[in-house]
């Protein structure tokens, strides 16, 4: 019953707004229309939660099967090309986010949302058929994943909608709930893939539509089906709502009226662009370090602890799932902490915790990693015996630090306690930084339409998720964990100094203009 449990968790996360006091508008009537608007607004926000959840699921639901599926459909594919396939999602999202954000500023947001989700559905169907062409199958998979990422560019619209439909008092809670739904997507995506692995590589063939339904294509088909449900919810439930910092509704929006344009121009003129640029830089750093963490976990654990591929996938899968659940608890705790001490201290504290997490990963001591087959060279009798065994059984998997990585010979190995402690700290610091960065960003922007600005924020995060894996794979392979994690610590420290230097400018639009919110 895992899906029932997760559904209950999502329900508990989003039901917390029901206790938020209704922010009455003095000009509203007493016939209950204000209450109806309030309920409609939160129904629409929950549709945005579901959209964010599916965006995460779309990224992770096939991530564990990408490499075996790529090998199966195209023998010419290599691990380097796999890196491009993984990066294609983030590249597509980076390109699409500003476009969908701009669209949402000038038209009802259900239009870019429905369009982007349709692209996502079509891209997942495309992925199901990448085995059909007789040549260049790997490029078809690359294009399919890029289109899935392009459709996921609607994250910018989702964030701008939630920012515009909540008051300052409600926003941190709403953003935390949205981040929790995103975290659930990252957890449930691989779980759905694992649940469908019973179909095997052969599966069944649906001859009418020429579809091979197996462990590789079924997850993408499930993602497409969920996308269709999402489109229906957007078209039937979502309504346009915009409230001011106190939670009072603006009048109905006429996207073609001159009044709307004038208001937007006045508001944009009052935005602190330095604060906007700083927020984008901080978000880039936050997403970069987490992309590094995701990428390096498996090879680092295999090198340091001599885990086999199967052990690394199993143990790291358990660790990442635990971090996901830990993140949900952090998102809920952030609501309370931000109300008590403010958004900026929580963001600063999260960065400090992340810095500690990566600092712990710096190797020290006199214990060195096992070198692959090193023991065979140290004992002639064992060497002769095991060489015969390896010769008779080619399936023996070498474990330990590859001899090609010269740093393995002089860099101390990590202790398992170091690795797990670092995971716990990063699992606390990252979600706090994540939710606070774009909560604070939305408050800095104020009442202006935030589609384009949220598009740039999403694009900066996607760029970080593209560059992070490339950076860490090159530095780690060539120079080792000391250099890789020292540079990451330097980057996080730079983010802390940047936040400290411009701390006074990262304030809500209303506060900056002297309209304090009680």
Describe the structure.
With 518 residues, this protein is an all-alpha fold. It has two domains: 29-256, Growth Hormone, Chain: A; 266-367 and 412-518, Growth Hormone, Chain: A. The protein contains 19 helices and two strands. The chain has a two-stranded antiparallel sheet. The longest helix has 33 residues, at 273-305. The protein is globular, with a radius of gyration of 25 Å.
Provide the fold topology:
Layout: H1 2-14, H2 33-60, H3 66-73, H4 79-106, H5 110-128, H6 137-151, H7 155-164, H8 168-195, E1 204-206, E2 211-213, H9 217-236, H10 258-269, H11 273-305, H12 309-341, H13 343-360, H14 374-378, H15 380-392, H16 416-445, H17 451-479, H18 481-501, H19 509-512
Antiparallel strand pairs: 1-2
Structural class: mainly alpha
Named CATH topology of the largest domain: Growth Hormone, Chain: A
The oligomeric state of the chains shown is single chain
How far from one another are the termini? 44 Å
* Order of helical and strand elements: HHHHHHHHEEHHHHHHHHHHH
Radius of gyration: 25 Å
Helix content: over 70%
Strand content: under 5%
The CATH top-level class label of the largest domain:
Mainly Alpha
